[in-house]
Protein backbone atom coordinates (compact mmCIF):
# COMPACT_ATOMS: atom_id res chain seq x y z
CA UNK A 1 0.00 0.00 0.00
CA UNK A 2 1.50 3.38 -1.06
CA UNK A 3 2.25 5.75 1.82
CA UNK A 4 1.52 9.49 1.90
CA UNK A 5 3.07 11.70 4.58
CA UNK A 6 1.52 14.94 5.79
CA UNK A 7 3.08 17.69 7.92
CA UNK A 8 2.00 21.13 9.13
CA UNK A 9 4.74 23.73 9.66
CA UNK A 10 5.12 27.36 10.76
CA UNK A 11 2.60 29.33 12.82
CA UNK A 12 -0.60 27.36 13.37
CA UNK A 13 -3.90 28.66 12.10
CA UNK A 14 -7.57 27.68 12.00
CA UNK A 15 -8.23 25.37 9.05
CA UNK A 16 -5.25 23.03 9.45
CA UNK A 17 -7.37 20.24 10.88
CA UNK A 18 -9.93 20.40 8.03
CA UNK A 19 -6.96 20.04 5.62
CA UNK A 20 -5.61 17.02 7.53
CA UNK A 21 -9.08 15.47 7.63
CA UNK A 22 -9.57 15.95 3.88
CA UNK A 23 -6.14 14.55 2.97
CA UNK A 24 -6.61 11.47 5.17
CA UNK A 25 -10.18 10.83 4.04
CA UNK A 26 -9.44 11.19 0.32
CA UNK A 27 -6.24 9.14 0.61
CA UNK A 28 -7.89 6.34 2.60
CA UNK A 29 -10.76 6.25 0.09
CA UNK A 30 -8.14 5.51 -2.57
CA UNK A 31 -6.33 2.88 -0.48
CA UNK A 32 -3.31 4.93 0.55
CA UNK A 33 -1.80 4.67 4.01
CA UNK A 34 -1.32 8.09 5.63
CA UNK A 35 1.59 8.89 7.94
CA UNK A 36 1.25 12.06 10.04
CA UNK A 37 4.63 13.76 10.52
CA UNK A 38 4.64 15.55 13.86
CA UNK A 39 5.70 19.17 14.39
CA UNK A 40 6.53 20.24 10.85
CA UNK A 41 9.98 19.62 9.43
CA UNK A 42 11.21 18.70 12.93
CA UNK A 43 9.20 15.47 12.66
CA UNK A 44 10.98 14.64 9.38
CA UNK A 45 14.33 15.13 11.15
CA UNK A 46 13.37 13.04 14.16
CA UNK A 47 11.18 10.57 12.29
CA UNK A 48 8.45 11.44 14.75
CA UNK A 49 5.28 10.13 13.16
CA UNK A 50 1.78 8.91 13.84
CA UNK A 51 -0.32 6.59 11.72
CA UNK A 52 -3.46 8.38 10.50
CA UNK A 53 -6.79 6.73 9.77
CA UNK A 54 -10.47 7.57 9.91
CA UNK A 55 -10.44 7.30 13.73
CA UNK A 56 -7.58 9.79 14.17
CA UNK A 57 -9.45 12.43 12.13
CA UNK A 58 -12.81 11.89 13.78
CA UNK A 59 -14.15 15.14 15.26
CA UNK A 60 -11.25 17.38 14.23
CA UNK A 61 -13.08 19.47 11.60
CA UNK A 62 -14.14 22.32 13.93
CA UNK A 63 -10.96 22.33 16.01
CA UNK A 64 -8.41 25.15 15.77
CA UNK A 65 -4.67 24.49 15.68
CA UNK A 66 -3.26 21.27 14.24
CA UNK A 67 -3.52 17.76 15.64
CA UNK A 68 -0.07 17.07 14.13
CA UNK A 69 1.64 19.89 16.03
CA UNK A 70 3.91 22.42 14.33
CA UNK A 71 7.33 24.08 14.57
CA UNK A 72 9.42 26.65 12.75
CA UNK A 73 12.24 24.13 12.19
CA UNK A 74 14.31 24.82 9.06
CA UNK A 75 16.24 21.74 7.87
CA UNK A 76 18.20 23.94 5.44
CA UNK A 77 19.97 25.60 8.37
CA UNK A 78 22.43 22.69 8.51
CA UNK A 79 23.59 20.57 5.58
CA UNK A 80 23.41 17.37 7.65
CA UNK A 81 19.76 18.08 8.50
CA UNK A 82 18.78 18.28 4.85
CA UNK A 83 20.43 14.89 4.29
CA UNK A 84 18.57 13.54 7.32
CA UNK A 85 15.23 14.62 5.85
CA UNK A 86 16.05 12.91 2.55
CA UNK A 87 17.19 9.75 4.36
CA UNK A 88 14.11 9.68 6.61
CA UNK A 89 11.87 10.16 3.58
CA UNK A 90 13.27 6.84 2.32
CA UNK A 91 13.18 5.15 5.72
CA UNK A 92 9.51 6.05 6.12
CA UNK A 93 8.89 4.62 2.63
CA UNK A 94 6.89 7.65 1.60
CA UNK A 95 5.68 7.79 -1.97
CA UNK A 96 4.60 11.41 -1.51
CA UNK A 97 4.50 14.17 1.11
CA UNK A 98 1.90 16.90 1.61
CA UNK A 99 3.54 19.96 3.20
CA UNK A 100 1.05 22.42 4.66
CA UNK A 101 2.58 25.76 5.52
CA UNK A 102 3.41 29.34 4.73
CA UNK A 103 6.27 30.88 2.80
CA UNK A 104 8.95 29.21 4.98
CA UNK A 105 7.56 25.65 5.13
CA UNK A 106 6.68 25.72 1.44
CA UNK A 107 10.09 27.26 0.68
CA UNK A 108 11.73 24.18 2.22
CA UNK A 109 9.33 21.97 0.20
CA UNK A 110 10.29 23.80 -3.00
CA UNK A 111 13.99 23.32 -2.32
CA UNK A 112 13.63 19.64 -1.41
CA UNK A 113 11.75 19.09 -4.64
CA UNK A 114 14.31 21.02 -6.70
CA UNK A 115 17.45 19.63 -5.01
CA UNK A 116 16.38 15.99 -4.48
CA UNK A 117 13.21 15.59 -6.57
CA UNK A 118 11.32 14.52 -3.45
CA UNK A 119 7.67 13.97 -4.46
CA UNK A 120 6.09 16.85 -2.55
CA UNK A 121 2.85 18.78 -2.92
CA UNK A 122 2.25 22.03 -0.99
CA UNK A 123 -0.85 23.57 0.57
CA UNK A 124 -0.78 27.31 1.41
CA UNK A 125 -1.58 28.17 5.02
CA UNK A 126 -1.34 31.45 6.90
CA UNK A 127 -3.51 34.01 8.60
CA UNK A 128 -1.30 36.63 6.91
CA UNK A 129 -2.60 35.83 3.39
CA UNK A 130 0.77 36.87 1.98
CA UNK A 131 1.59 33.75 -0.09
CA UNK A 132 2.08 34.44 -3.79
CA UNK A 133 0.08 32.61 -6.48
CA UNK A 134 -3.07 32.11 -4.38
CA UNK A 135 -5.89 34.59 -3.83
CA UNK A 136 -6.47 33.30 -0.30
CA UNK A 137 -4.76 31.02 2.17
CA UNK A 138 -6.97 29.35 4.75
CA UNK A 139 -6.77 30.82 8.26
CA UNK A 140 -7.03 34.37 6.95
CA UNK A 141 -10.82 34.52 6.94
CA UNK A 142 -11.01 33.30 10.55
CA UNK A 143 -8.36 35.82 11.68
CA UNK A 144 -10.24 38.64 9.92
CA UNK A 145 -13.50 37.67 11.59
CA UNK A 146 -11.86 37.54 15.02
CA UNK A 147 -10.20 40.94 14.49
CA UNK A 148 -13.46 42.42 13.16
CA UNK A 149 -15.33 41.28 16.25
CA UNK A 150 -12.66 42.84 18.47
CA UNK A 151 -12.95 46.12 16.54
CA UNK A 152 -16.74 46.05 17.02
CA UNK A 153 -16.22 45.62 20.76
CA UNK A 154 -13.65 48.39 20.91
CA UNK A 155 -16.06 50.78 19.16
CA UNK A 156 -18.49 50.75 22.07
CA UNK A 157 -15.89 51.47 24.74
CA UNK A 158 -14.13 54.06 22.53
CA UNK A 159 -17.42 55.88 22.08
CA UNK A 160 -18.30 55.83 25.79
CA UNK A 161 -14.92 57.24 26.83
CA UNK A 162 -14.38 59.53 23.83
CA UNK A 163 -11.04 57.87 23.15
CA UNK A 164 -8.84 56.91 20.27
CA UNK A 165 -8.39 53.14 20.15
CA UNK A 166 -5.37 51.80 18.35
CA UNK A 167 -5.79 48.13 17.35
CA UNK A 168 -2.65 46.23 16.33
CA UNK A 169 -3.18 43.19 14.10
CA UNK A 170 -0.75 40.49 12.98
CA UNK A 171 0.15 39.94 9.34
CA UNK A 172 3.94 40.16 9.12
CA UNK A 173 5.04 42.38 6.23
CA UNK A 174 1.64 42.52 4.55
CA UNK A 175 -1.45 44.43 5.59
CA UNK A 176 -4.15 41.94 4.61
CA UNK A 177 -5.62 41.30 8.07
CA UNK A 178 -5.56 44.99 9.01
CA UNK A 179 -7.20 46.05 5.73
CA UNK A 180 -9.95 43.42 5.68
CA UNK A 181 -10.73 43.57 9.42
CA UNK A 182 -10.53 47.38 9.40
CA UNK A 183 -12.87 47.63 6.42
CA UNK A 184 -15.31 45.12 7.90
CA UNK A 185 -15.14 46.77 11.33
CA UNK A 186 -15.46 50.37 10.14
CA UNK A 187 -11.98 51.63 11.09
CA UNK A 188 -11.32 55.36 10.78
CA UNK A 189 -7.74 54.77 9.64
CA UNK A 190 -5.87 51.62 8.56
CA UNK A 191 -2.08 51.61 8.53
CA UNK A 192 -0.29 48.86 6.64
CA UNK A 193 3.28 47.93 5.65
CA UNK A 194 2.52 48.66 1.99
CA UNK A 195 1.94 52.38 2.81
CA UNK A 196 4.47 53.95 5.19
CA UNK A 197 2.87 55.78 8.13
CA UNK A 198 2.79 59.58 7.92
CA UNK A 199 1.94 60.43 11.52
CA UNK A 200 0.93 64.03 10.66
CA UNK A 201 -1.56 62.70 8.09
CA UNK A 202 -3.01 60.21 10.61
CA UNK A 203 -3.48 62.94 13.23
CA UNK A 204 -5.04 65.27 10.63
CA UNK A 205 -7.56 62.55 9.78
CA UNK A 206 -8.47 62.14 13.44
CA UNK A 207 -8.74 65.92 14.00
CA UNK A 208 -10.92 66.27 10.90
CA UNK A 209 -13.20 63.53 12.20
CA UNK A 210 -13.41 65.15 15.62
CA UNK A 211 -14.09 68.46 13.85
CA UNK A 212 -17.34 67.01 12.50
CA UNK A 213 -18.48 66.02 15.97
CA UNK A 214 -17.13 62.47 16.28
CA UNK A 215 -15.24 62.29 19.52
CA UNK A 216 -13.81 58.78 19.23
CA UNK A 217 -11.77 56.99 16.55
CA UNK A 218 -10.54 53.50 15.72
CA UNK A 219 -7.10 53.23 14.17
CA UNK A 220 -6.09 49.76 12.93
CA UNK A 221 -2.38 49.19 12.44
CA UNK A 222 -0.67 46.10 11.03
CA UNK A 223 2.27 44.85 13.11
CA UNK A 224 4.64 45.28 10.14
CA UNK A 225 3.63 48.87 9.34
CA UNK A 226 6.61 51.13 8.89
CA UNK A 227 6.93 54.80 9.77
CA UNK A 228 7.72 57.15 6.86
CA UNK A 229 11.18 57.62 8.35
CA UNK A 230 11.81 53.87 7.88
CA UNK A 231 11.27 52.56 11.44
CA UNK A 232 9.70 49.12 11.89
CA UNK A 233 8.96 48.17 15.50
CA UNK A 234 10.29 44.72 16.45
CA UNK A 235 10.63 42.67 19.62
CA UNK A 236 14.21 42.59 20.72
CA UNK A 237 16.54 39.66 20.16
CA UNK A 238 14.24 37.01 18.74
CA UNK A 239 15.03 35.72 15.26
CA UNK A 240 13.52 32.42 14.13
CA UNK A 241 15.28 29.65 12.13
CA UNK A 242 14.25 31.32 8.90
CA UNK A 243 15.81 34.61 10.00
CA UNK A 244 12.56 36.47 10.71
CA UNK A 245 12.50 39.03 13.50
CA UNK A 246 9.45 39.03 15.75
CA UNK A 247 7.25 41.99 14.94
CA UNK A 248 4.95 43.72 17.41
CA UNK A 249 4.73 46.93 19.39
CA UNK A 250 3.99 49.47 16.65
CA UNK A 251 0.56 50.07 18.21
CA UNK A 252 2.13 51.41 21.40
CA UNK A 253 4.48 53.75 19.55
CA UNK A 254 1.63 54.98 17.38
CA UNK A 255 -0.74 55.53 20.32
CA UNK A 256 1.84 57.60 22.18
CA UNK A 257 2.41 59.81 19.13
CA UNK A 258 -1.32 60.21 18.47
CA UNK A 259 -2.02 61.20 22.09
CA UNK A 260 0.89 63.66 22.10
CA UNK A 261 -0.06 65.28 18.81
CA UNK A 262 -3.86 65.37 19.08
CA UNK A 263 -4.27 65.69 22.85
CA UNK A 264 -6.94 62.94 22.76
CA UNK A 265 -6.77 60.12 25.26
CA UNK A 266 -5.55 57.00 23.43
CA UNK A 267 -5.48 53.31 24.30
CA UNK A 268 -3.92 50.30 22.59
CA UNK A 269 -5.12 46.73 22.04
CA UNK A 270 -2.68 44.22 20.58
CA UNK A 271 -4.74 41.34 19.21
CA UNK A 272 -1.78 38.96 19.01
CA UNK A 273 -2.28 35.21 18.96
CA UNK A 274 -6.03 35.51 19.61
CA UNK A 275 -6.18 35.93 15.82
CA UNK A 276 -4.77 32.44 15.34
CA UNK A 277 -6.85 30.62 17.91
CA UNK A 278 -10.16 28.81 17.96
CA UNK A 279 -12.50 27.27 15.48
CA UNK A 280 -12.18 27.98 11.73
CA UNK A 281 -14.94 29.82 9.88
CA UNK A 282 -17.03 27.94 7.31
CA UNK A 283 -14.98 29.61 4.56
CA UNK A 284 -11.71 28.30 6.00
CA UNK A 285 -13.11 24.82 6.65
CA UNK A 286 -14.29 24.58 3.04
CA UNK A 287 -11.14 26.11 1.54
CA UNK A 288 -8.92 23.81 3.63
CA UNK A 289 -11.02 20.82 2.60
CA UNK A 290 -10.82 21.74 -1.11
CA UNK A 291 -7.04 22.20 -0.84
CA UNK A 292 -6.63 18.83 0.91
CA UNK A 293 -8.67 16.96 -1.71
CA UNK A 294 -6.80 18.61 -4.61
CA UNK A 295 -3.43 17.83 -3.02
CA UNK A 296 -4.26 14.11 -2.95
CA UNK A 297 -5.53 14.31 -6.55
CA UNK A 298 -2.18 15.83 -7.58
CA UNK A 299 -0.41 12.92 -5.88
CA UNK A 300 -2.64 10.44 -7.72
CA UNK A 301 -1.78 12.24 -10.98
CA UNK A 302 1.94 12.08 -9.97
CA UNK A 303 2.09 15.86 -10.35
CA UNK A 304 4.74 16.81 -7.79
CA UNK A 305 6.49 20.10 -7.01
CA UNK A 306 3.22 22.03 -7.05
CA UNK A 307 1.29 24.08 -4.51
CA UNK A 308 -2.49 24.13 -4.67
CA UNK A 309 -4.04 27.57 -4.88
CA UNK A 310 -7.31 29.45 -5.14
CA UNK A 311 -7.85 31.66 -8.19
CA UNK A 312 -11.24 33.29 -8.31
CA UNK A 313 -13.33 30.41 -7.02
CA UNK A 314 -11.29 27.70 -8.71
CA UNK A 315 -8.75 25.42 -7.06
CA UNK A 316 -5.69 25.28 -9.29
CA UNK A 317 -1.98 24.63 -8.81
CA UNK A 318 1.26 26.51 -9.33
CA UNK A 319 4.90 25.35 -9.34
CA UNK A 320 6.23 25.51 -5.76
CA UNK A 321 9.27 27.50 -6.87
CA UNK A 322 7.00 30.37 -7.94
CA UNK A 323 6.23 31.28 -4.34
CA UNK A 324 9.87 31.30 -3.19
CA UNK A 325 11.04 34.58 -1.66
CA UNK A 326 7.86 36.46 -2.54
CA UNK A 327 5.33 38.30 -0.40
CA UNK A 328 1.91 39.08 -1.85
CA UNK A 329 1.05 42.70 -1.00
CA UNK A 330 -2.46 43.92 -0.22
CA UNK A 331 -4.75 44.35 -3.16
CA UNK A 332 -4.73 48.10 -3.90
CA UNK A 333 -8.38 48.19 -4.89
CA UNK A 334 -9.58 46.87 -1.54
CA UNK A 335 -7.35 49.36 0.31
CA UNK A 336 -8.76 52.23 -1.77
CA UNK A 337 -12.28 51.14 -0.81
CA UNK A 338 -11.29 51.11 2.88
CA UNK A 339 -9.73 54.59 2.49
CA UNK A 340 -13.10 56.02 1.46
CA UNK A 341 -14.14 55.70 5.10
CA UNK A 342 -11.04 57.20 6.72
CA UNK A 343 -11.44 60.30 8.90
O1 LIG B 1 2.71 34.13 10.20
C1 LIG B 1 1.70 34.10 11.16
C2 LIG B 1 2.05 34.99 12.33
O2 LIG B 1 0.97 34.92 13.24
C3 LIG B 1 2.39 36.43 11.98
O3 LIG B 1 1.26 37.21 11.70
C4 LIG B 1 3.15 36.83 13.21
O4 LIG B 1 4.07 37.89 12.95
C5 LIG B 1 3.90 35.58 13.59
O5 LIG B 1 3.20 34.51 13.00
C6 LIG B 1 4.00 35.36 15.07
O6 LIG B 1 4.78 34.24 15.27
P1 LIG B 1 4.90 33.43 16.65
O7 LIG B 1 3.69 32.56 16.76
O8 LIG B 1 6.15 32.66 16.49
O9 LIG B 1 4.94 34.44 17.75
Amino acid sequence: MARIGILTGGGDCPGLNPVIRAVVRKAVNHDYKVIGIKNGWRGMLERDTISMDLDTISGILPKGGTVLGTSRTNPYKKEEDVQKVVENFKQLELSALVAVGGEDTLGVAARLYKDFQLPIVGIPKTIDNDIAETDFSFGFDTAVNIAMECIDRLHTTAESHHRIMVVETMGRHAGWIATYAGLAGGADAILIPEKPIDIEEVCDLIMKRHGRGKNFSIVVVAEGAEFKEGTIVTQEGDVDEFGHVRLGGVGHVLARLIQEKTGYETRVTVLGHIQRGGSPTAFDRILGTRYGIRAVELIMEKKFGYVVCLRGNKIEEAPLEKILGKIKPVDEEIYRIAETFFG
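The chain has a mean pLDDT of 97. The radius of gyration is 21 Å.
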